[in-house]
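Late entry, evening session. Most of the bench is empty. Finally got around to the prediction I had been postponing all week. Sequence below, unchanged from the version circulated by S.P.
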Amino acid sequence: MKKFAPGFWPTVMTIPAVLILLSLSFWQLNRYNWKVDLIDRLESRLAEAAVPMPEGKIDPEEWAHRRVSIEGEFDHSQEIHLFSHAEKGRKGFQIITPFTRSNGAGVLLVNRGFVPEDRKEVKYRKEGQITGPQALSGIIRKPWTKSYDFLPDNNANTNVWLYGDLDQMAAHLNLEVAPVFVELDDLPVPGRFPLGGQTRVSIPNNHIEYFFTWLSLAAAMMAIYGLYGISKAKKNAQ
C-alpha cells in the first residue's frame, strides 16, 4: 500500500516552485554577504584621513564617500538651496555653494551643510558667509536624481531643489563643475550655520530576513505537498 501518492500535476507544480524558492533564498544570502562587504568598505573610507582632492577629472564611483581636503574660495552669490531634514527631523535646507579651487583646479559644488527653514535667506545668517581663501575637508558624494517619477521636479526659479541633480545645477549656474559634490565636515562656522557634518550613509541590509522568508515559503509548500500526498494515499487505500 502506498503511503504517499500526491499525483502527477501537484508534483509538477510543487517541485519546480520549491526549487525556485530555495534558489531565491540562497541568492538573498549571497546578497547579504555582498552588502556586508559594501558597508565595511564604506565605513572604512569614511574613517580614513582626508587626502587632497585630485586636480584633474575623477571617477565618481572610485572617489565616492572618500574624505578629501580642498582649498579655494566660495561664490556665495550663487548658492543653491536643497530641501532637507536634519536635527531630529527639523525641516530646512542644505546650502550648496560654488567653490573655486586654488591653482586653477576648477569649480566644485560644495554642500556647506544644514540651515533651518527660518535661516534659508542669507540675511539671517550673514556671519556664516565666510570669504577669502579657505582650507576645508569633506566627503565626496555622487550626484543623484529623483527616485520616483511622480515626485516633484527641482525648481530652479524658486531655488528650491529636491534632489542632487548636479548637471541641472551646473546648467542653472552656467558653470562647468566637477562631477561630484563635496559635503563639508562639521567645521567651525561663524554664527553656526550652515551646519556641516551632515553626511549620512544608510544602506539597509535586510537580506537575512528575505532569506528566511523564501526558505519558509519553500518549507511550507513542501509541508503542504507532503500532507496532501499522504492524505491522497489514504483515500486511495480506502
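Two things to note before I forget:
The chain has a mean pLDDT of 87.
Residues 123 and 129 are 10 Å apart (CA to CA).
Will write this up properly tomorrow.
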